[in-house]
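Researcher: Here's the sequence for the chain we discussed earlier.
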Amino acid sequence: MRVASVAPPFIPVPPVEYGGTELFIADLARGLQAVGVEPIVYTNGESSVDVERRWLFEKSQWPIKGDAYNHLKDMEHATWAIHDASGSCDILHMNTVFGLIPSRLSRLPLVYTVHCPTDRQLSALYARFPEVNYVCISNDQRKRETLPKLHTIHHGINLSKYHLQTDKQDYLSFIGRIAPIKGTHLAIEIAKRAGIPLKIAGEVQPEYRDYFEAKVKPHIDGKFIEYAGLADLAAKNELLGNSMAMLFPIKWDEPFGLVMVEAMACGTPVLALRAGSVPEIVKDGVSGYIARNIDALVRRVQDLRLVPAEIRGYVEQNFSQERMARDYCALYTRILDESRDSYSV
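Model: Thanks. This is the structure I predict for it:
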């Protein structure tokens, strides 16, 4: 089975720093290869995932602006990938919404992983392509869509890249986009109220620069509140692995939240507000704590009793690259079998 996995053209696969979708694509490709599936990743020329790679655009481009040119670039890349894959692959796995529109030009069965947050206009677009197999990344996301072919497959990660750290240091961590919906300012509030230092890592995108300047930067003193900028894999391991807990005080319905799994893989509990996919990813009282308000999270920070090795074990059982690859392989196989049956009728 040859699977064409189409990424957006802007960030390398795997990403050097920011790029949750690109990390998913890389881990899935490696996992599929391990179970005998032949993945071909359509990405940009700076990608390094160790499977077959094809690209139209050589260089990465991040951050991007939401202008017409970049939308056209994404669509051009996706259209080229669909055309190229049609002659050599068995199934298309699309990871950019701009690939849905030109997918009408191909007869290959199509899987589309819904990486975007729920949006009324996107849902209307999905409905115009009812033949597509849509994969939601959480049941919470899935319940927000009404489509004939909906599946749920949780993300998984390459656990060999994340190191269990049992000896924790006296600080909290926050990794994510520095944005209001991610709750960076709430993480600062929790740390201050609990009296425990906080280390922050994440991208400040141009649209949230004012938020960073007003709500985050004034608190950064390099001692109690530290900001480390972007974090690559090594920095994540150090920052997450050594911290007492990772704070995840989101203010929106996060479709998945891969950083929660990364923290738990390091043996670090996640302290999160109840929203979106959080209850599907964090097992309350085992791999972290889930609360409905900031007061409850402050109390939890001051009374952490979870065992790092057990947190890691929970991730190994539920969010491994191998489990994710098996789930997608089963879906591909079922879709191909159904496609063959429809042609034989």
